[in-house]
Amino acid sequence: MKWNTRITELLNIDYPIIQGGLAYLAYADLAAAVSNAGGLGQITAMSLNSPDELKAEIKRLRTLTDKPFGVNFAIGQHGRPFEHMVQVAIDEQVPVISVTGGNPKGVLDMVNTHAIKKLVLVAARRQAEKAEELGADAVMVVGQEGGGHLGRGDTGTLVLTPQVVDHVSIPVIASGGIGDGRGLMAALALGADGVEMGTRFIATKECVDAHPGYKQALLDADENATTVIKRTLGMPARALKNEWTTRILELEAKQATYKDMKELISGEANKRYIYEGDATAGFGWAGQISARIDSIPTVKELITDLLTEAETIRSKWK
Fold it and tell me: CA quadruple 296, 172, 315, 183: dihedral positive or negative?
């Protein structure tokens, strides 16, 4: 089966599969494995401490693959300045950048005059239209099934994807609730040109920074294993249920402020869980697709199995 879509052509990749930014986890080993397997791997820029660290990670990635890759910029509501990090991506002439978690204008304004492909994560039709106006080459559409930060609405990927497809002219990438061949084929049937997967790539051998306990929690998850935190703060995000998220939700029920919850929802709390596996001291992002994860393969095995499943489905449609 040929996998040529507008996304494979735009990004010069073999398969329309993009690895999500994955805060504190998406570094050179994982990104190179995805790119070498024919997808688009990404480094998470804003999880690094300085421009020098980002430059070093990009250079290390280039020793591991000669394939296209991306650098993700998570522009959070309470994030630090990003301009100096974007400049590194420009100076290093990275093939692709993606913008998630905030208004993409600042990043796109810096990059629009360069030969870098620009992807923007959106959670609503209007956001997608605006991203196209600002110069995005493609949009990634995340529904409520996704892990990590989501849109403020409750629209799922199944409805949101064709809604965006019908209102923009640039390629659309479906995200949220996708982790296998069935998800890929469903996304293509909805009019998308590819998929972005985040949670599924955590449960792979090359996601070397994820603690075994975190990966095991994904294996053990069912359809009720995740919850949305930070909704009352206006920045909802999906994580695995544990003691820590219960504490957060209890505070939210009492209308706690950001200041009241700052330590509980911090990046440090996230890292304590994903790096150390301590469910009593932090939390881990995860999408609802965790209910469908039952193995920890290599990235190459994952993508091979995904494509085999997709091709089997396609053969039944003849």
Answer: positive
| Sheet of strand 117-122, all strands in order from the earlier edge strand to the far edge | 17-19, 194-197, 172-175, 138-142, 117-122, 96-100, 69-74, 41-44
**pLDDT for the residue 78:** 52
pLDDT of residue 2: 84
Beta-bridge partners for 229: 237
- Burial 237-259, CB ≥16 within 10 A → b, else e: bbbbbbebbeebbebbeeebeee
What is the side-by-side order of every strand in the sheet holding 226-229?
A: 148-149, 237-240, 226-229
Q: CB–CB of 83/109 below 8 Å?
A: no
Angle among Cα 258, 261, 265 to the nearest 5 degrees reads 105
Q: Among residues of the chain, what percentage have pLDDT more than 70? A: 99
Distance between CA 163 and CA 183 in Å, rounded? 17
Which of 192, 142, 186 lies closest to 170 in space, CA to CA? 192
Residue ranges in the chain whose pLDDT is less than 50:
none
> Taking a C-beta distance cutoff of 8 angstroms, is the pair 192, 165 a contact?
yes
Distance from C-alpha of 89 to C-alpha of 86, rounded to nearest angstrom: 5
Tokens 């509501």, residue located: 77
The pairing of beta strand 172-175 with beta strand 194-197: parallel
56 exposed, middle or buried (CB, 10 Å; 0-12, 13-18, 19+)?
A: middle
Do strands 117-122 and 96-100 pair parallel, antiparallel, or not at all (unpaired)?
Answer: parallel
Rounded CA-CA distance 90/114 in Å is 7
Buried b (16+ CB within 10 A) or exposed e, 12-34: ebbbbbbbbbbbbbbbbbbbbbb
Buried b (16+ CB within 10 A) or exposed e, 62-85: eebbebbbbbbbbbeeeeeebeeb
Question: Measured between alpha carbons, how far is 227 from 265 in angstroms, rounded to an integer?
Answer: 14
* Residue 201: how many other CB atoms lie within 10 Å: 29
